[in-house]
């Protein structure tokens, strides 16, 4: 799988996020980095993150329907985490309403919001775009560089 940078204003990104029921309101805001995941020259998914010092909020990870159930989501997530680690992140956070089991298999663990970094809790994802019932999860990125 190949990972390549993508502009947050990408129509393809917005369409994929909307189709998956994920928020698009802030994808073009400053500080977001998005990527396209490709396999054999065709797009299989998208993902992004927001870097906040040594902490990163993984967001908007979506695999296209034809790429689901083949392990490509795991590969894409690991590639995204490697990018975040190279950018200086040491701990990754994410919010999810329906993929906690998937992320647990990748080493993420539930985190109490009261113990999460203020910068992560102040993101638009945490404040307004994800429901308060979304699980907050975290994982160390040591060894991802």
Question: TL;DR of this structure?
Answer:
The protein is built from five helices and seven strands. Helices cover 28% and strands 32% of the residues. A seven-stranded mixed β-sheet has the order 1-2-3-4-5-7-6, sandwiched between helices.
Describe what this molecule looks like in 3D:
With 145 residues, the protein is α+β, with helices and mostly antiparallel strands. It has one domain: Aminopeptidase (3-Layer(aba) Sandwich). Helix 2 links the parallel strand 4 and strand 5. The chain starts with a strand and ends in a 5-residue tail after the last strand.
Layout of SSEs?
Layout: E1 2-6, H1 11-19, E2 32-39, E3 42-52, E4 55-63, H2 72-86, E5 91-96, H3 100-105, E6 109-110, H4 118-121, H5 124-129, E7 135-140
Parallel strand pairs: 4-5
Antiparallel strand pairs: 1-2, 2-3, 3-4, 5-7, 6-7
Estimated radius of gyration: 14 Å
CATH architecture: 3-Layer(aba) Sandwich
CATH topology: Aminopeptidase
**Structure class:** alpha+beta
CATH superfamily: Gcn5-related N-acetyltransferase (GNAT)
Number of strand elements: 7
CATH class: Alpha Beta
Residues in β-strands, percent: 25-35%
How far is the N terminus from the C terminus? 17 Å
